[in-house]
Design a protein that fits this description.
By secondary structure, the protein is mainly alpha-helical. The chain has 15 helices and 3 strands.
């Protein structure tokens, strides 16, 4: 029987009714309060590059990372005696403050906030807003050119309108429509496609580093969260984004196997778009990665063939059963 009250309960002497709070939400609020106001209760310190410090609680480390908790509590580690741990990567290089800040926030809040502000207009359905709006602009410009061409008696294009004087890098999103309608679409495209606002290139480095850090300190949910962000980048509508992900992945000093496998999976699905002259020899630049991708493609093709064989056998078996029920064993003759 549930003990949850069906309606808010009023208590004598209180102006506001008491409201039931879900246990999970209560825990979230408690952890947030501990992170923001619990410095007096902290018993350990995490240190990033440059000496920046974060006061944390061993019990929170215990909840998320056996590695960090052991460092903070085991007598065999000097960190347990000094009460502080200088966090480094696998090469012994101190972790950037941005990474440690994200780590601490995850330990207490279980989220991984973006370190940048994406420019998005309300109502955009696509996660890649830049691709969506520029595609719409391209269609509008194409329609405009066609209609204008039809209006001219000789079928030629009308004179190009006066170009905008405002530099494209100073334009806001609504102004891009004006730029396109002024036949500045190619310039707008060149500027806006320099990067995707929803998936900026520097974000790839950030999430790759987060995944490596989470792997090093054995925080599996954080690693999975970082991988999901990397997958979003690899699936970005901007054609060059997957190439950038692969380049940065192959250039990274330490990358968890799960990250590489995830990107290989996505690349195998998009191999036709990459293995072109426009790809700039992407797979040729990374032969080991390319080999993994081609193995995945072959594996999928084999699985597809096996699945088709199994389906064909299933259909034939069903046909045999059908004929047997009708006392007709001329299977080969009548099998569709």
């Amino acid at each position: 029987m549930s003990t949850r009250p069906s309606t808010p309960v009023s208590h004598a002497g209180e102006d506001m009714p008491w409201e039931y709070t879900e246990p999970a939400q209560a825990l979230v609020k408690g952890m947030k309060k501990l992170m923001e106001d619990g410095n007096d209760l902290s018993d350990f310190t995490l240190v990033a590059d440059g000496g920046k410090e974060w006061k944390v609680h061993k019990v929170v480390l215990f909840m998320h990372s056996d590695v960090l908790y052991t460092m903070s509590s085991s007598p065999t580690f000097i960190e347990s005696k000094t009460g502080r741990a200088e966090l480094n990567d696998l090469n012994g290089k101190p972790l950037d403050a941005q990474l440690v800040d994200a780590l601490v926030r995850y330990l207490y809040r279980q989220d991984l906030p973006l370190q940048w502000q994406a420019k998005r207009e309300p109502g955009w359905g696509s996660i890649c807003g830049g691709h969506t709006i520029l595609t719409e602009l391209a269609e509008e410009v194409e329609d405009l050119n066609i209609s204008n061409g039809d209006d001219d008696e000789d079928g030629s294009q009308p004179p190009i309108p006066t170009r905008l004087t405002t530099p494209l890098d100073e334009l806001e999103w609504p102004d891009l429509r004006q730029a396109a309608m002024a036949h500045n679409f190619e310039q707008a495209l060149e500027w806006k496609w320099d990067d995707c606002d929803a998936h900026p290139n520097h974000g790839i480095d950030f999430f790759l580093s987060i995944a490596a850090m989470a792997d090093m300190y054995n925080i599996q949910p954080l690693k999975a969260l970082a991988i999901s962000h990397i997958e979003n980048y690899a699936n970005c509508d901007m054609p060059s984004k997957l190439e950038t992900v692969i380049d940065k992945l192959c250039a990274a000093e330490a990358v968890p196997d799960e990250v590489r496998h995830a990107v290989v999976e996505i690349t195998a699905w998009k191999i036709g778009k990459l293995h072109t002259a426009e790809g700039g020899g992407l797979l040729e630049r990374h032969p080991e990665f390319a080999l993994e991708v081609f193995k995945k493609v072959v594996q999928r093709e084999n699985q597809k063939m096996e699945s088709e064989k199994a389906a064909a056998k299933s259909r034939r078996d069903a046909w045999v059963i059908h004929l047997a029920r009708h006392d007709n064993w001329a299977v080969d003759a009548d099998y569709p």
